[in-house]
Design a protein that fits this description.
single chain, alpha+beta, 4-stranded mixed beta sheet, two-stranded antiparallel ribbon, 5 helices, 6 strands, 48% helix, 22% strand, globular
Length: 162
C-alpha cells in the first residue's frame, strides 16, 4: 500500500462534540470551536496501535473535569475510548487565556517587538499544553506533535476555564 493511502487511514476524519455535555455557547466561541475542529481534521496523524481500520471519527464529551475521547473506526465501530483529566490543564489554560487576551489587546496598538514577544510566550504555552496533552493520551493511541497542538487548540476552544 502506498504511503499516502496509509497516512489517509492514520488520521481523524470527523470530530463531533457531544452537545449535551459540551453545549453551544456564544457565536464567537462556536466559531473558535468550528475552526479548531476544521484545523484538526485538515492536518493530523492519529492511529490506534494494533489496528488498521481508520480513518477515525472522534466524539468528545465531558464529565466534570474529564474530557472523554470516543474513537470509532471507518465502519463506525468502537475502536478505543479514553478520558483525560483536565485538572492538570487548569493553571496552564488560565495562563494561556490570559496571554491570548494580552496578545489580542497588543495587536490593537502595541509595537511589533512587543507583539512578537507576547506571541512567543503564547506559542510556548500552547506547546506546553500540547506536550501535556500528548502525555495524557493512552499508549494505544499514537499522535504526532501537530495533532497534539491541534487537539490542545480544540481543548482551549472548548473553554475549559478554571
Amino acid at each position: 500500500m502506498s504511503g499516502d493511502a496509509e497516512r489517509s487511514r492514520d488520521r481523524i476524519a470527523d470530530v463531533q462534540l457531544d452537545e449535551k455535555t459540551i453545549p453551544r455557547g456564544h457565536i464567537d466561541r462556536d466559531h473558535e470551536r468550528a475552526a479548531a475542529v476544521f484545523d484538526l481534521i485538515e492536518d493530523n496523524r492519529f492511529s490506534v496501535r494494533g489496528r488498521d481500520d481508520g480513518p477515525y471519527s472522534l466524539r468528545l464529551s465531558r464529565n466534570e473535569a474529564r474530557l472523554t475521547f470516543e474513537v470509532r473506526d471507518a465502519a463506525g465501530a468502537p475502536a478505543v475510548e479514553f478520558a483525560v483529566s483536565m485538572t492538570p490543564f487548569q493553571s496552564l489554560l488560565k495562563d494561556y487565556f490570559r496571554i491570548c487576551e494580552t496578545y489580542f489587546s497588543a495587536i490593537r496598538g502595541a509595537g511589533a517587538r512587543q507583539i512578537a514577544d507576547i506571541d512567543r510566550a503564547r506559542t510556548a504555552l500552547h506547546n506546553e499544553g500540547a506536550a501535556l496533552l500528548a502525555t495524557r493520551v493512552p499508549e494505544q493511541v499514537e499522535i504526532d506533535q501537530t495533532t497534539a497542538r491541534r487537539l490542545f487548540t480544540l481543548v482551549s476552544a472548548l473553554n475549559w476555564r478554571p
